[in-house]
């Protein structure tokens, strides 16, 4: 009998696959007796054991009947000819997936491949000493962690450390039971949408806003309402008359403008939420990174009505691939969040959590944080100095002594000219990123989101010099 | 001025909190000049620096105006009296959360606290040598991993290793681009529901079935249709005439009965899916653990229409707290799954993935697997021997040489009597778990789900002896 072995994996697997294929496509008809193992072994010049193993496997899978010795016969398997459909309708996914298709663009722009200086926002700075320090923490944690423990809320030692940290650094008083450990801010936004938002429910966003929150909320089917921000953050007087389900805000350092929500506005926002009986999601994505006084106390710390869902992240402070963040849940929603987390992915990985708890307890986390803050401050100053020297009055910086990025507003640029600038910069190996995608509506002015986290001070100096050249070029163009 | 310091954290924080509280509740009126720092320092018997720091913080947060020296005045903050609502309606969460409330029960049954022998299903066996071996892998991986890398699909080296493993052990031919690394089977089930199921869409489950799949699908709003299973697994002739969106099956080892889906039924199921243009979610949750021949080839390996979403888990093989599993995605759904994963939590933690890829490449994973299989086989045999000796003809075991659990059907038990048995066993320190919750409809017979993963051979012997005593007791009762 003709059998084509495909040469992948062990010989008995190849033989099993070949025989299966022949049986399924009818080349070996049902009822046929397979050749005795010795015979087939000789024919294929392989060991008899190999053939025996293959037959045994086929028998186990119901392809052949009969016992070794009494002969092996191909089972009566009823195979049917394939039905032919056009796939269009079955491939139509859920409404959720359809919305994901609308917001997600999977082609990484060719433009930003292999740039020398990419001022992209999002990646935390890498502390070169962190790899080994963290590796030691992980190994240490692995040694004593109960590997099977699955606490939906998160490891209690980490929740405890998180509470101490929040009280100390963010003025947030929380108990470990209020804390939920999640796989990054993105999951926090998702769980919040899951727990609070039905398809079509209105949700308020800042304009401009964090694009991944926008995308996640759209995917969930939220009806987005963008509310203007100014130098004091969200303009609370312009909150909609109709009550939204949820308000997503970044009070300590508005993303991306950097505006700090003023105390009066904080009180107004809390009052609005109370009046309209809606919830506030406070994304404190970089509250750790203020370079002047102490970080501002979180909105949550002023919340007496227990309407603020507070989110902070460890990934931004440590490294992007860590995927750990934390939420402070209002008491009324606690069991809903726990249920959504548990049914969603049960719990976060246990060893990371144990290692991080220990890292925080030992003060390694704070040391790392101080170091990161110092370095980020230097990078930030390099960008500002570079802009002053090379971009001069052609850009306007909205400036808060905080964070991992800056916004440079371009004077006298419209959208096409901004795109031209970005394209030109890419030719110089400089990665610039427009503000426009961070708006729900068309913005009235053009700007650039400058993430300075990923480049060293010297790289940033050079990047700013290049930026100046690009602006010069655009004036000539 | 009267200030109550709460003694939590640094002194300046306590002072800041105390002043804030007084300002917010109006005890210190807007416009009031705060006492000079030196004066307040003397009054409270604390250092002047502490007071200066507190004032600085209050100024930064907009609680007071004016510069140090010229005096500090309480800002004109408009605070409003709290509105009073009954919270009932705002606390009504999304429909998703309401369904979660229906399926999730958060009171861990007192019954199963502190049992000597808990035959609970779900926790993988712990290999005592794994802690250190895995710790070394993590430390090693941390040293060379790009800590910021965020691949939504999962680390490519791990996807490559997964493909090799699937081809070698499960007969599944997949390319790294077909693979999505997820945070456990639970997330795989969720993403599948997300991508395919709208509220109200029919989804087919086996009866009985894996309870967490049931709960997750209910939470998503799926309309569940339970189809009977027998000793050959899902009874395909009884699949509904109306096309479901999705069919959730456990073909290689039906959960919980252990039945292996026969080859004919596999072909019938694939044909049904093709005819009705629906998708199949193949949960191969313990395909690794067969103690006779090689594991059966996966349903996915027979799937020529690319309708099977295959899910396998690393957590079951390694340890529960790992939270890593993998999906093989049909080409038509690939970008939808990637989008849902990315917007859901962006990606799985990077170091774990790197460590696991290395562990698989070095053969440590296979070694661990062999060892686990050997040990589980011994435990399984201990349970069966124990049941034969102590439970005798009072129970019937559905027996496949596979997996991490058994089902023991109880002769002549109704639901209340089964509960009485479980309650009595708990008094003996023996944790028994009923089959009833694994059914959508009321089952016609009572049984117990015996998970033997968490106990040693000797513990299992003792547990079975106790079980026998409990059965004796029930006969006298």
From TrEMBL, chains A, B:
<dbReference type="Pfam" id="PF00392">
    <property type="entry name" value="GntR"/>
</dbReference>
<dbReference type="InterPro" id="IPR036388">
    <property type="entry name" value="WH-like_DNA-bd_sf"/>
</dbReference>
<dbReference type="InterPro" id="IPR004839">
    <property type="entry name" value="Aminotransferase_I/II_large"/>
</dbReference>
<keyword id="KW-0032">Aminotransferase</keyword>
<dbReference type="InterPro" id="IPR015421">
    <property type="entry name" value="PyrdxlP-dep_Trfase_major"/>
</dbReference>
<keyword id="KW-0804">Transcription</keyword>
<feature type="domain" description="HTH gntR-type">
    <location>
        <begin position="9"/>
        <end position="77"/>
    </location>
</feature>
<keyword id="KW-0238">DNA-binding</keyword>
<comment type="similarity">
    <text>In the C-terminal section; belongs to the class-I pyridoxal-phosphate-dependent aminotransferase family.</text>
</comment>
<dbReference type="InterPro" id="IPR051446">
    <property type="entry name" value="HTH_trans_reg/aminotransferase"/>
</dbReference>
<protein>
    <submittedName>
        <fullName>PLP-dependent aminotransferase family protein</fullName>
    </submittedName>
</protein>
<keyword id="KW-0808">Transferase</keyword>
<dbReference type="InterPro" id="IPR015424">
    <property type="entry name" value="PyrdxlP-dep_Trfase"/>
</dbReference>
<keyword id="KW-0805">Transcription regulation</keyword>
<dbReference type="InterPro" id="IPR036390">
    <property type="entry name" value="WH_DNA-bd_sf"/>
</dbReference>
<dbReference type="Pfam" id="PF00155">
    <property type="entry name" value="Aminotran_1_2"/>
</dbReference>
<dbReference type="InterPro" id="IPR000524">
    <property type="entry name" value="Tscrpt_reg_HTH_GntR"/>
</dbReference>
<keyword id="KW-0663">Pyridoxal phosphate</keyword>
<dbReference type="GO" id="GO:0008483">
    <property type="term" value="F:transaminase activity"/>
</dbReference>
